[in-house]
């Protein structure tokens, strides 16, 4: 979709995210079950995260079972605090403090990294997925270009050693004129000469298969490269509040059955009807690219049509 192409160009380095399960169950209880399936992540480097459920998963003991990830800056005793809530020098720094109030310095590796930082403007443009470095005192820092004015949501996705995988979100502000962008729903994304087609429906409350098919110049891409231990990482954000959802890839590179494209399979479960922004990171020929989609929730095949879902998303506005 042209909008997506435009947005991709907008977004600087883009990387994306979505990780396969690294905070499995983050938004949705049933994903916990999927994540625990043998072989899904266990073969990956850093695979100790296999089967993790976030603390709010309905199937994992927790205090807030129904709350999607990323909506709070503090949860489960962990708090995300940016060093500068108005970062203007091209870097972004933050700390995660633990239940004892001190900065956390011990994190587990998930999807090859101890910290995944996703930043997107509140209108879901400029998506970036980066991996900050931690100093000895627990301060994480990364170069981060935020070229346009507005309010941005920063999501820190991590697993404190001995704690549950957690995603916290906090807003940071960039001075300047804010010109919000609206996104037209569509199932085709163009990025750097690649075309990515989205198949499958997001069905609220149900684990739903989603397939992304990558081609270039009409030729299916069959030599995708592993990126963060998967052939694709998908992040979904709910329009309106930017609830942060992980989507889990089916299969891992090297498992003997997962092809390196053109199709990358995921299982997604969204908590409610509405419009979601999907960001697929994939790597080919040594570069990571991000394909963006805007999709209203659909209905399960054969299920009664839910008139609220399509109507809600028809104009691409989540609210
Ligand atoms: Cu990451």
Task: Tell me briefly what this model is.
This protein is mainly beta. The protein is built from three helices and 18 strands. Helix content is 7%, strand content 34%.
Structure description:
The chain is mainly β and 319 residues long. It has a domain at 46-174: Sandwich (Immunoglobulin-like). Helix content is 7%, strand content 34%. The chain contains 3 helices and 18 strands. Strands 10, 11, 12, 13, 14, 15, 16, 17 and 18 form a 9-stranded antiparallel sheet that branches. A hairpin with a 6-residue loop joins strand 4 and strand 5. It starts with a helix and ends in a 6-residue tail after the last helix. The site of copper (II) ion has 6 residues, from loops.
Features:
319 residues; mainly beta; 9-stranded antiparallel beta sheet; 5-stranded antiparallel beta sheet; globular; disordered N terminus; disordered C terminus; binds copper (II) ion
Reconstruct the topology from this structure:
Blueprint: H1 2-10, H2 29-35, E1 74-75, E2 78-82, E3 91-97, E4 116-121, E5 128-130, E6 133-134, E7 139-143, E8 150-158, E9 166-174, E10 188-191, E11 194-199, E12 208-216, E13 219-220, E14 233-238, E15 244-249, E16 263-268, E17 275-284, E18 287-296, H3 308-313
Antiparallel strand pairs: 1-2, 2-3, 3-7, 4-5, 4-8, 6-7, 8-9, 10-11, 11-12, 12-13, 12-16, 14-15, 14-17, 15-16, 17-18
The chain binds copper (II) ion.
């Amino acid at each position: 979709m042209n909008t997506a192409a435009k947005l991709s160009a907008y977004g600087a380095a883009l990387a994306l995210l979505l990780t396969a399960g690294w905070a499995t169950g983050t938004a949705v209880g049933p994903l916990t079950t999927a994540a625990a399936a043998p072989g899904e992540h266990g073969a990956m480097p850093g695979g100790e995260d296999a089967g993790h459920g976030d603390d709010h998963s309905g199937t994992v003991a927790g205090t807030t079972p129904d709350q999607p990830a990323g909506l709070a800056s503090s949860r489960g005793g962990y708090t995300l605090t940016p060093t500068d809530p108005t970062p203007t020098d091209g870097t972004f720094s933050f700390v995660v403090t633990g239940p004892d109030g001190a900065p956390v310095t011990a994190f587990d590796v998930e999807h090859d990294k101890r910290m995944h930082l996703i930043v997107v403007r509140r209108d879901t443009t400029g998506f970036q997925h980066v991996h900050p470095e931690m100093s000895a005192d627990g301060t994480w820092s990364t170069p981060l270009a935020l070229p346009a004015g507005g309010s941005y949501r920063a999501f820190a996705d991590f697993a404190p050693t001995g704690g549950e995988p957690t995603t916290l979100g906090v807003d940071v502000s960039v001075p300047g004129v804010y010109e919000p962008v609206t996104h037209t729903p569509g199932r085709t994304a163009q990025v750097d000469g690649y075309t990515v087609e989205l198949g499958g429906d997001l069905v609220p409350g149900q684990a739903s298969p989603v397939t992304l098919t990558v081609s270039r110049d009409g030729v299916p891409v069959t030599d995708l490269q592993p990126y963060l231990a998967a052939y694709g990482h998908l992040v979904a954000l709910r329009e309106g509040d930017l609830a942060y959802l992980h989507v889990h890839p089916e299969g891992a590179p090297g498992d003997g059955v997962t092809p390196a494209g053109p199709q990358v399979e995921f299982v997604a479960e969204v908590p409610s009807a509405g419009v979601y922004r999907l960001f697929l990171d994939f790597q080919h020929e040594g570069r990571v690219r991000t394909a963006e989609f805007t999709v209203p929730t659909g209905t399960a095949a054969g299920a009664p049509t839910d008139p609220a879902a399509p109507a809600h998303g028809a104009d691409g506005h989540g609210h």
